[in-house]
Design a protein that fits this description.
By secondary structure, the chain is mainly α. It is about 65% helix and about 0% strand.
Length: about 425
């Protein structure tokens, strides 16, 4: 960028000759209210421009705020300025980060509830000897924050490897994980730590600390597999997993669709021509950005699907294990009364099958609308979504869940009823 008189001197141009083209002319307008007036003043030069360039008639001069130049240039024909990142490239990463954080928080909450369930007698005794609810809440929050702190340290170590790989996925993006140059990053990490600790630990801290000591010591209070809130969280976890799987499959198929789409001509031999002076490039070059973004979003969603599925399976295994522990005597009684192993397994799995079914519906709907939004922002013509596509992620989630918990459920169902009835 340089001043206009420098540009004229540098290229030895006649400043009254309107045939020369430049990428853009930047005008500083101190008062935004004067923009319309400036635009009106420029109109008198339209005939001058059209007379000088009869091959390039114009009807108006566009005035765009500097903050919007990068975004709007993508829609300007024969644009010489470098565009900002594609909207899809801006939207997709935060979505992935938020969904992973939610899954991790849901999983952490379920784990906190499960571990607190084993400490009910400790909580009851502390209340009996004068412990206050406020003290228990603070204790739970501090324990959760300490765990989140160590998780943050591990995450930063992993980010050292993931950030460069992620940066290479997006054109015109260069991201470096620097703690010294960006002081605001430390504030972000502190706020993220507090937010995650509060989000994941608030329910266990307030809910469990509110129990009455008499009920706890009499064994009437139980947490774990029968907890409704835990099941809701698990449903959301698996819903996000299905959403990511659906999106990953759709973007994979869309990449194939774009590569094999019959346009009626050989796209590798078609040259697109921008304005005077002549500059041409192959059509495939103009589509490279869209294809690159499609590929990057596919990789992002595949990574999200992997992390979400692993965390969801951990949560599922934890809740199934707790459910089995809480229903050990019930299983023993059912076997004594003649229930078969298959019948007991069905009984233990029933509620979790409902969880997976609801999650599959939520994930398919969410994956459809999110993929439609992202693909629609990249392509004018893209893959027509076939309902059959949703079958694959749903079957995968049910299958991998059964493999993960099947052994545990079978072990509980085939256990000697005498051992089950003696279990405390």
């Amino acid at each position: 960028m340089t001043r206009f008189d420098n540009f004229v001197d540098m290229w030895e141009l006649d400043e009254t000759n309107w045939q020369y083209g430049v990428a853009a002319t930047f005008i500083q307008v101190p008062d935004p209210s004067h923009v319309d007036r400036v635009k009106e003043m420029l109109r008198k030069y339209i005939p001058v421009q059209n007379e000088a360039r009869e091959d390039f008639k114009i009807t108006d001069f566009r005035i765009i705020p500097l903050k919007k130049v990068g975004k709007n240039n993508r829609d300007v024909w024969s644009n010489w300025l470098i565009n900002s990142m594609h909207p899809a490239a801006i939207v997709a990463p935060p979505i992935m980060a938020i969904l992973i954080l939610l899954i991790a928080s849901f999983n952490f909450t379920n784990t906190a509830i499960a571990s607190a369930g084993k400490r009910l007698k400790e909580i009851g005794i502390r209340k009996v000897i004068g412990g206050q609810k406020r003290q228990l809440v603070v204790q739970f929050f501090m324990e959760n924050l300490i765990i989140c702190f160590f998780a943050l340290i591990v995450a930063l170590a992993i980010a050292k490897f993931l950030v460069p790989a992620y940066s290479s996925m997006w054109e015109y993006m260069s991201i470096e994980l620097s703690f010294a140059e960006h002081k605001g990053f430390w504030l972000f990490l502190v706020l993220l730590l507090l937010l995650t600790g509060f989000l994941a630990g608030s329910y266990p801290a307030f809910y469990i600390s509110s129990f009455r000591p008499v009920g706890i010591l009499q064994g009437k209070m139980k947490l774990g597999g029968a907890n409704v809130f835990s099941r809701i969280l698990l449903t959301l976890q698996f819903g996000i997993s299905v959403l990511a799987l659906v999106s990953g499959i759709l973007f994979t198929q869309n990449a194939t669709y774009q590569a094999t789409l019959d346009l009626g001509y050989d796209r590798d031999k078609v040259i697109i021509v921008p304005n005077y002076p002549y500059a041409g490039r192959l059509q495939e070059e103009t589509m490279a950005e869209a294809k690159g973004i499609n590929q990057s979003i596919k990789e992002v969603q595949s990574f999200l699907a992997l992390i979400a599925t692993l965390l969801s399976l951990i949560g599922m295994y934890t809740l199934v294990s707790l459910s089995i522990i809480n229903r050990t005597k019930e299983v023993g009684i059912r076997k004594v009364l003649g229930a078969s192993i298959v019948g007991i397994m069905n009984n233990l799995n029933r509620n979790f099958m409902y969880i997976l079914l609801i999650a599959a519906i939520l994930g398919c709907v969410g994956g459809y609308y999110m993929s439609e939004m992202l693909m629609g922002s990249i392509w004018d013509h893209y893959l027509d979504i076939n309902p059959v596509i949703f079958v694959y992620p749903v079957i995968f989630i049910f299958l991998i869940s059964f493999i993960t918990t099947g052994g545990k459920v079978y072990q509980a169902a085939s256990r000697n009823p005498a051992d089950s009835l003696r279990y405390e």
